[in-house]
Amino acid sequence: MTPSRTTTRTTTRAATRDITRPAARDTTRAAARDTTRAATRDTTRTATRDTTRTATRGITRAAAVAISLTTCLLTACTEPTMPQAQMPDAHVPPFAKEPFEPFSRDAVVAIALREWRLFGQTMADPAGEATRTIKPEREQGLWQRVGEYWWLGLNAAAPEIGWTGKHDGDGTVFDPEDDGNYAWSAAFISYVFRIAGAGARFPYSADHAVYINAARTVSLGQSRQWLLAAERVQDYAPRPGDLVCFGRGSARGLRYEDLPTATLFTSHCDIVVDTATPGMITVIGGNVQDSVTMNTVAVTQDGRLATPDGTVLDTRFPWMAVLRVTEDASAGT
Q: Please, which residues have CB within 8 angstroms of residue 85's CB and are 6 or more apart in sequence?
């Protein structure tokens, strides 16, 4: 008997169901198994990686501790030091700070002459100064040079270190009539000695009185720190590289015997650059006629600024003292 359509459909559905269910079940189980394996593998990898990282960190920390202990033993476990204040010569080039060559009179003279040439070889001429319309210290190329005198001549923390030939420390241009408040003659002297390699043996300052007084303490035997010693103008003939100094304004009558003073005083010093001509020495000073200027000074036949009784020959300058320079023992070798 031929099966009915209903019977056939029922049989087909049952067969399909019996075939489909095992296949689906097998597929589900395989997928679950694969998922489990992947999860297990990922978990294992993550655990391994974390373990490795932890171990590496441990090794690194242990190595760091070992290095620290070794360093401590080598340095006797000293306490960490606080940052120090800026050194006075932190801004000075190495050739002048170390210095590369011994300090010498020749170096002082050579640098002074170089700066004189840079300013156009100005010779002392009061009449010419009266007719001049532009001050050299304010000209392009020269006001910057005066700024270098301030910057390198003085110590790093000096309040005047940012000045130039026409600017204050904030960069403001001051009036030409106010340049007396920014007098740079002592900065020039300090610059020359700094670049010549005087190092810590020169009392760099914006006031000549600082190193005049310091030099007097040396000649009195109160100090051995400086390479300058003050001498009486009638007792010692200045040599190239020495400084010749006089009081100005209210200090014009100040004498060698008055040194050292308890307070600063207005003064000026020039650098002796030549003594070859009998009866005359040649000097160079900064901020003379607002320039680096050369001048000649009358002296006795044996080269002194005053006669034995103390009478100064060149009455333009009330000479107070000669600051004798001490060279390094190896200078000129």
A: 157
d(CA 145, CA 165): 8
SS3 track for the chain: CCCCHHHHHHHHHHHHHHHHHHHHHHHHHHHHHHHHHHHHHHHHHHHHHHHHHHHHHHHHHHHHHHHHHHHHHHCCCCCCCCCCCCCCCCCCCHHHHCCCCCCCHHHHHHHHHHHHHHCCCEECCHHHHHHCCCCHHHCCCCHHHHHHHHHHHCCCCCCCCCCCCCECCCCCECCHHHHHHHCCHHHHHHHHHHHCCCHHHCCCCCCHHHHHHHHHHHHCCCCCCCCEEEECCCCCCCCCCCEEEEECHHHCCCCHHHCCCCCCCCEEEEEEEECCCCCEEEEEEEEECCEEEEEEEECCCCCCCECCCCCECCCCCCEEEEEEECCCCCCCC
pLDDT, one tens digit per residue, over 86-95 is 688 999 999 9
Residues 73 and 103 in one domain: no
Question: Which among 54, 81, 108 is the end of a domain?
Answer: 81
Per-residue pLDDT reduced to its tens digit, 153-190: 999 999 999 999 999 999 999 999 999 999 999 999 99
Residue 85: predicted pLDDT: 56
25 lies in the same domain as 141: no
List, for residues 203-228, the tens digit of each pLDDT value.
999 999 999 999 999 999 999 999 99
Stated pTM of the model? 0.74
Instruction: Give the total number of structural domains in the chain.
Output: 2
| Contacting residues for 241 by C-beta, under 8 A, at least 6 apart | 104, 105, 106, 108, 109, 271, 272, 325, 327
The answer on 106 and 137 residing in a single domain is yes
What is the domain range of residue 3?
1-81
